[in-house]
Structures are given as C-alpha cells and as structure tokens.
Amino acid sequence: FEPRRQNFPKVLTGNPFTHPGSATEVESHDSGLNLTESSEETQSSNLVLEKGVKIIDQSNVYQIEELRGYGAFGKVFKCRKEQTGETVAVKVFNKIRRNSARLELRAYKELSVLESDKNNLIRFFDSFIYKDHTFLVFEHLDVNLNELVKRHNKILSVAEIRPIAEQLLVSLRALKSIGLTHTDIKPDNMMLVHSDSKPFKVKLIDFGIAIKTAKIVSTSLMQPKGYRAPEVHLGLPRDEGIDMWGLGCVLVFLFIGSHLFPLNEYESMRLIVKWMGLPVNSMLENGVRANRFFTQKEEKKMGRRIRRFLKLDKNRPKLMWRLKTKTEYELDTKRHVYPANKLHHHLKSLNDLVIMKPYFKSPTERADENDFINLLRKMLALNPADRIHPEDALKCTKVSTPSTLTISEAIFHR
C-alpha cells in the first residue's frame, strides 16, 4: 500500500482564473516544494504551493484553491480535480516526514476493509510521490469540531451533540472490530461534512498515528495533552479504550465550549483525582509513571478489629497512596505547573457540567442532560476496565419502540 511513484508529474503555476494556456509548466526535475517554515526546506525549494498552482499526477490534475491546515508533517490543501470538478483535500508530506506518510498509508490499508461512509470515516482516494514528497488525496470536508466551537462561537445542545456522539461511537466500533486504535482523538480530527445541514454529519479523520491495538507499547506517551487517558498518564497497558476516553472529552468540549482537562499533565491528573477519585491501588502499583504523580504515605493506626474487618494482613506495610502536591511534583520533575483556569476550580464533579448552562430548561431537556452526563461518566471511567465499549454505548438504552426512535435519538434516553 505504498504511494505510486510518478516519473513525470508536473506542477503548473498561474492564476487559476486565467486561460489554462497562460499557466507556466514546471517539469519535475527543476522544481521543488516549499512545505515547511524551516530554512533547510526553504533553501531546497524554488516553488511555493499556493492558490492557482496545478499538481499533475499521471492521470489527474489538482488545482490548489486554498491552504486548509498545516502541521509537523506538511500541509493540507483544498484542491479542485479538473477532470471532474470535484473538490478534494490533498495532504502533502515533505521528504523529512516520508515515514509518517508511510505509516498513515498503512493505516488506510487497514481501514480499506471498512465502508467509509457507513462507519463515518474519511474517504481516502489516492496517493502518489512527486520529487520525494508524498501526496495523499481525500474527500473534502467542511469544518472540524474545534473550528465549529471556537471560530463560529457555537456551543452545542445535547440534541445537537446526540447524533455526533452516535456517529463517532460507530467509528470507534468499526476501529475496534479491526483491532485499530486511533490514538489522536480530539475535536480537530472530527470534521463535519456540511456545517449548514442538520443533524450534523461528522467523520473521523487523520489516522497518521493510528496503531494496531495489539502493538501498543504501554510505556509510551500518546494522545493529545488534555485528552490523555489515565492509563497513559500512569504508564499502564492500554487498548482502544483510550479512544473512548478521548471521545468523552470531545463531547464535553462540544457541550461547554472548553476543554475538560488542561494541557499540563499534573493539573490533568489532579482534576482526574478531584472529579473521579484516586486510581485503584493496582493501577498505581503497576503504572511505570505513577510515581511521577503519586507518592505513598504511612496509614493512620488502625485498631485490631478494623484491620480484621478490612481483612488486612497484620504484616502488610502500612502505606497508602496520595497525589503529590504541586511543589513535590515540580521538585521531582523540574517542571513548572501552570494553574488550571477558573472553569476547573468551579467543577466538583462531572455532574456540575450542567451548571455551565444555567438557562431555563424544560423537564425533557434536563432529563436529556442528566442522561448525557451519565453516559460521560461511563466513557470517562477512571479504571479502563470499567470504561464503556462502543457497542455498549450504542446499546446502553432499551427502546420500547425502536421503529420510531433511532439510536441517535435514544442514546441519552433513560
């Protein structure tokens, strides 16, 4: 599933609104691609990809209309496929990130056994190599969920979140069925097909760091900061359940317009403990990173009857776990802890999320919100063994009249 290597691709430059004959053709042997801001990359390039440039594959011509995004890998452009007039997204990897492109292509090979539209996954069309740069071609989507909330100042109601939750649970169910974990679940990697149409149709994108679940290394850090599951923080074995944790955080973001957990790892762990309690002893004893956040202290003396009632071994070390203080963490890690924002101070538990929307609500809306919070608690279970699975989340409700009530309408219903 390697990208096709093109021997004679061309890049054309010129105003996209002028006659095609007025564009300048540049053969592959004397052109370069400026894909990053680094001086090394700029010096090796003499052609900038910009509006109006035409990228010619062996069988297709893609004309750049605008830059849609960029990252460490390179850039994503909105392009028009000249043969059909179809709008597509073209992701360009610079030569330094060639291996990243290979890994992403490997993920799309795994995904090829699934129906993209049925499982709400972005459609992958094609790949090719031009002058040591890899081009991946996808369907073009509208805006991601981060743009929807931040740029359009749009906080969603439970009624609007409901179909989004269902569609993304279907995506996670599909990934679980083929043993693949996305590992990068966040609002930026979920895009609306059309932001103007409701109910929202959403798709999961960017499988650049997806990995076979069986190959996940328990000691490696993964997931975006603020969307990182407790087992990842603690250095415990993990599976596709980390994606469920990430999705739970995304749904909270849609509901209140703010990220549930801050970027700082200590503050994230402190809030996990504040809202969900201390991890069980087995998680703290087996986590290779647990000592980064937690320490042990001596238990208070217990009477013989209490110890017998709790079935505690009299020879057992009288130690118990506690979260390190901010000062202890900073001294041990040599890292400064930036305090969480006011939102995090006000919330005492996930139940308090409804306080973020104090406006008048009908009894039905209140019931919907309560059921939404109940589902969030299952998605954000501290112990991964207790976390809900996609199939169970989709079937968490028994509906008496399934013919008139879809899963998306029932998912937060009692």
Automatic annotation (TrEMBL):
Keywords: ATP-binding, Kinase, Nucleotide-binding, Serine/threonine-protein kinase, Transferase. Residues 31-42 have a biased composition (Polar residues). SUPFAM superfamilies: Protein kinase-like (PK-like). SMART domains: S_TKc. Residues 62-404 form the Protein kinase domain. GO terms for biological process: intrinsic apoptotic signaling pathway in response to DNA damage by p53 class mediator; positive regulation of transcription by RNA polymerase II; smoothened signaling pathway. One of its GO terms (molecular function) is protein serine/threonine kinase activity. Pfam families: Pkinase. It comes from the Eukaryota. One of its GO terms (cellular component) is PML body. Residues 1-42 are annotated as: Disordered. PANTHER family: DUAL SPECIFICITY PROTEIN KINASE (PTHR24058), HOMEODOMAIN-INTERACTING PROTEIN KINASE 2 (PTHR24058:SF53). This is Protein kinase domain-containing protein. It comes from Nothobranchius furzeri (Turquoise killifish).
